[in-house]
TrEMBL record:
Source organism of the structure: Sporomusa acidovorans (strain ATCC 49682 / DSM 3132 / Mol)
Alphabetically ordered keywords of this record: ATP-binding, Cell membrane, Kinase, Membrane, Nucleotide-binding, Phosphoprotein, Transferase, Transmembrane, Transmembrane helix, Two-component regulatory system
Membrane-spanning intervals of the chain: 30-50, 209-229
InterPro entries (alphabetical): CheY-like_superfamily (IPR011006), HATPase_C_sf (IPR036890), HATPase_dom (IPR003594), His_kinase_dom (IPR005467), HisK_dim/P_dom (IPR003661), HisK_dim/P_sf (IPR036097), HPT_dom_sf (IPR036641), Sig_transdc_His_kin-like_C (IPR004358)
Keyword Electron transport: no
PTM-bearing positions, type 4-aspartylphosphate: 575
Phosphohistidine: residues bearing it: 706
Pfam families noted in UniProt: HATPase_c, HisKA, Hpt, Response_reg
Subcellular location field: Cell membrane
Protein name: histidine kinase
Length: 764
């Protein structure tokens, strides 16, 4: 997980600032690119608009010129001589009146006139100007500035617009159209209409300005959008930073809470361990009746404290999303029977009847998490007994639905207890929720049990609820979709598991198991206890002596390392929370020293922390096994039997290892390569064997067991080879049940064979 423990960390701030600067640069690059694109598009659009405007103006002027040309009397033109003689003649005056009328209609026209080519000279026939005007052109006066295009119209008669052009009268745009003889089609004159270029240019400029305005408007919108995006990006960065800071604060609180929970677990479990250990030892002495009552009270108080601690730790796991559920095959009816047996005494003590009813439609074997289901039901039934003073508590299991893959089961816990008010039911599954008033003082608890149960049921994919009436009892119910166990896996389960009305011991809390039997016989040897708490030291010393062992004590990590180097211990119990040097660091030092000598002493971690990742850290440090406090004599016995059953050297054929060493030396190799190769292959093949036995696949199990037998014999693991040989024979005979029982011995041997091989090879 990324560490945000310091908001002011320069690396964090620089990276965050660099990201913001990078985003800003991206916006700028896009802004420049889009600006260029809009300007280019605007320029092209404006050019096109100007061109269209000019074409429209030319079309309109040309249309007016052609229309006016058709109105001119060609007969009158033919009567003129195109000289000064025409001035004052009726035809001339008539044509002048027509031109003046045309000019009056076209108010934007400055001049309207008629031209004719005489002896290759362009002369005026008539003019709309007053004769007294300085701009008047008398008939027959030459138009010396006529363009080639104007002369061409007398040849092809094609009307056109010319200009803007400048002449002695100013700058004009002229519309020119031919006047024809309708009969012959001969061009008799050309009519010209002049418009001041200024008016023409105003129209073009207006079009250009409109185009520029549209372009600027688009740019303004784009800039406004850019500003909004930039502002939004900065706001997003501020929100992101705030979220980072909030996440950092949350993670800091979570880490602090985890550290507090670890400390709480270690300290309280250490104290409870001392209390329960001393209680256990005191119980083995001669006690009178009153003293026995005191021992029972001590045990009850310590167990209650441990229950509170377990509730808090479970709640912490759930909040941290570290609680996981399994999906294994288990026998459903024995699990319910086991719950009844465990709580029967509590019910009898209160004069209650505890009844269990199971729907026959529920399969014998289901797939799910039996440990979590048992934890939920223990909580519900315990609560029902606690809050019921008379009557009965009934556990009922019914099959709601079933298909090829899923069995939907509803389990209800019905009591005749005090019942609940509606507002109490609303908050019943909230953490730390308790009934208020006298009941909360009478029935003490953490207020976490039902919240934890609800969370566990949700993790298993189910639902939980309650119906109740004050003074009439309550009905707590859960519905869980269990996996339908396959026929093979169901048939492979031990028949005893289906018939024994108690839950498997490994699924029960340690304090619910049977009383501890007598001490193991002839189990003596040197054992080192590494523990700083004097009470726990005394408890462990007494417990181990009770098992026939001879313990020594080291009070801190450095002392433990020194004693290990100077002594020959067969087993070390190492507390993780030691002064000066913690247990995991001490273990690493011991393992480093052992690497040179080839020795390997089994180290068992003593920890008050039950979180999976913390237990994994113990194993990663080089410890061989883990005991979670409080530790009972039975826990110690199991650990001693596991690790001191026989000396490591007795399970290895040294002559085989010697031959392998000679073979390795001749090939300039090392015997550890052979051992490491064997140990790498061993887990996968063993797991393959285990799966074959669970599936009752005799042929597969026999083949894998044969391979493991040969491999083990080749490396010198003679005792493991013999066990695999026995498994091979049992598999061939089809005796799956006995073969699975033998796998427990194989598992014990598997834990020992690696260190034994390393140690034996080191002694060579």
């Amino acid at each position: 997980m990324e560490n945000f423990s310091n908001r002011n960390d320069p690396i964090f701030l620089n990276s965050f600032g660099a990201r913001g600067e990078h985003n800003l640069n991206n916006y700028r690059r896009w802004l420049i690119a889009i600006t260029l694109l809009i300007l280019t598009a605007g320029w092209l659009g404006m050019t096109l608009a100007v061109k269209l405007t000019e074409e429209e103006l030319r079309s309109k002027l040309l249309l007016r010129a052609e229309t006016a040309a058709t109105m001119i009397s060609y007969e009158r033109i033919e009567q003129l001589t195109a000289t000064a003689v025409d001035s004052g003649s009726p035809s001339y005056e008539y044509l002048r009146e027509q031109l003046i009328a045309t000019r009056a209609v076209n108010t934007d026209c400055r001049f309207v006139y008629l031209l004719k080519v005489v002896d290759k000279r362009m002369v005026f026939l008539a003019d709309s100007e007053l004769t007294t005007s300085a701009d008047y052109s008398p008939p027959g006066s030459e138009y010396s500035e006529a363009s080639d295009a104007l002369r061409q119209i007398f040849i092809d008669g094609k009307a056109f617009v010319e200009g803007p052009l400048s002449d002695e009268w100013g700058t004009w745009v002229s519309g020119l159209a031919a006047v024809r003889d309708p009969a012959s089609g001969q061009i008799v004159a050309v009519l010209g209409m002049d418009i001041a270029a200024r008016d023409w240019q105003v129209a073009v400029t207006s079009t250009r300005l409109i185009g520029m305005g549209i372009t600027l408007a688009i740019l303004m919108v784009m800039y406004a959008l850019f500003y909004a995006l930039q502002t939004s990006a900065k706001a997003t960065e501020r929100v992101y930073l705030a979220e980072k800071q909030a996440k950092e604060a949350l993670e800091s609180v979570s880490r602090a809470k985890s550290q507090f929970m670890a400390y709480l677990s270690h300290e309280i479990r250490a104290s409870v361990n001392g209390i329960l250990g001393l209680r256990e030892l005191l119980e083995t002495t001669l006690l009178d009746r009153q003293q026995q009552d005191y021992v029972v009270a001590i045990d009850y108080s310590a167990r209650s404290l441990l229950t509170v601690l377990n509730d808090v730790l479970d709640f912490s796991k759930i909040e941290a999303n570290k609680m996981v559920v399994e999906n294994v095959d288990f026998a459903f009816r024995p699990l319910l029977a086991g719950i009844k047996k465990m709580l029967q005494a509590a019910a009898i003590n209160k004069g209650l009847e505890l009844v269990t009813t199971v729907d026959q439609n529920i399969p014998q074997i289901l797939g799910g998490d039996p440990a979590r289901l048992q934890q939920v039901l223990l909580n519900l039934v315990s609560n029902a007994i606690k809050f019921t003073d008379a009557g009965r508590v009934e556990i009922k299991a019914a099959c709601l639905s079933q298909d090829a893959s899923t069995v939907q089961v509803k389990i209800t816990v019905d009591d005749t207890g005090i019942g609940l008010e509606p507002d109490e039911m609303d908050k019943m599954f909230q953490p730390f929720a308790q009934a208020e008033g006298a009941n909360s003082r009478k029935y003490m608890g953490t207020g976490l049990g039902l919240s934890i149960s609800a969370s566990l049921v949700k993790l298993m994919g189910g639902d939980i609820g309650v119906t109740s009436h004050k003074g009439e009892g309550s009905v707590f119910w859960i519905t869980i979709p269990f996996r339908s166990a396959t026929s093979n896996s169901a048939s492979c389960l031990d028949e005893a598991m289906l018939s024994t009305p108690v839950a498997p011991a490994e699924q029960l809390p340690a304090w619910l198991t049977q009383p501890i039997a007598s001490a193991a016989e002839n189990q003596a040897g040197n054992v080192l206890i590494v523990e700083d708490n004097p009470v726990i030291q005394q408890v462990l010393i007494s417990q181990l002596r009770h098992l026939g062992l001879t313990p020594e004590v080291a009070g801190n990590g450095p002392e433990a390392v020194q004693k290990t180097l100077n002594g020959e211990y067969k087993l070390i119990f190492m507390d993780c929370g030691l002064p000066l040097l913690d247990g995991m660091a001490a273990t690493r030092l011991i393992r480093d020293k052992e690497a040179a000598s080839g020795r390997h002493v089994a180290i068992i971690a003593l920890t008050g922390r039950s979180l999976p990742d913390e237990l994994q850290q113990c194993l990663a440090a080089g410890m061989d096994d883990v005991l979670v406090k409080p530790v009972s004599v039975q826990d110690l016995r199991q650990m001693v039997e596991r690790w001191l059953r026989e000396d490591f050297s007795e399970c290895i054929d040294r002559s085989v290892l010697k031959e392998l060493k000679q073979l390795a030396d001749s090939g300039q190799s090392h015997i550890d390569l052979f051992i490491d190769s064997y140990l790498e292959e061993l887990p996968s093949l063993t797991e393959k064997l285990r799966n074959a036995l669970l599936a009752c696949d005799a042929a597969q199990a026999s083949a894998v067991a044969h391979s493991l037998k040969s491999m083990s014999a080749t490396i010198g693991a003679i005792r493991l080879s013999n066990l695999f040989g026995d498994l091979e024979q049992l598999s061939k005979n089809g005796n799956c049940v006995e073969a699975r029982t033998l796998m427990a011995k194989v598992d014990t041997e598997l834990r020992q064979v690696g260190p034994a091989l390393k140690r034996a090879a080191g002694l060579l």
